[in-house]
Amino acid sequence: GLRVHEYLYFQVLSPGDIRYIFTATPAKDFGGVFNTRYDQIHLVPADPPEACGELNNGVFIQDQIALVERGGCSFVSKTRVIQEHGGRAVIIADNAYDNDSFYIEMIQENSRRTADIPALFLLGRDGYMIRRSLEQHGLPWAVISIPVNVTNIPTYEMMQPPWTFW
């Protein structure tokens, strides 16, 4: 049967034009879990975006969360690159920028490699809009709060991205 996705939520605090609560799905069989809540932590887009090797901005990833783009190598490889640069977690956005509803199930490839930091999958449209906002404002990162507990927030009060169908 169909498997119901487990969701994790994070909120962009700045820049203000994307101050929304975003939905992500944790990796299925690799990576750690969020056992700490970060009220204000940087979400740093990886350079290069696919994060399949050495990063040009790895110094900014340390102790922060990386925003990575799908493609080029496995989800585990991307997560390990961010982990090796000292990242606390990785959010991997789909490389299909028009994807606003289909979550990919991130699984470990057929190797014994694993990663210890949390890895989340983000819709392509959401990742694109976050990166676009940062570029428009000339910012090297967004400030986010993660994870966000949405169980006590009435649906009509949740600041959801207007481009996402809920």
UniProtKB/TrEMBL annotation:
Superkingdom per UniProt: Eukaryota
InterPro entries: PA_dom_sf, PA_domain, PRADC1-like_PA
GO cellular component entries: extracellular region
Signal peptide segment: none
Keyword Glycoprotein: yes
Location in or out of the cell: Secreted
PANTHER family (alphabetical): PROTEASE-ASSOCIATED DOMAIN-CONTAINING PROTEIN, PROTEASE-ASSOCIATED DOMAIN-CONTAINING PROTEIN 1
Pfam families tied to this protein: PA (PF02225)
Record gene name: Pradc1
Domain PA stretches: 43-127
Protein name, entry field: Protease-associated domain-containing protein 1
Functional note: Plays a role in the modulation of physical activity and adiposity.
Keyword annotations of the record: Glycoprotein, Secreted, Signal
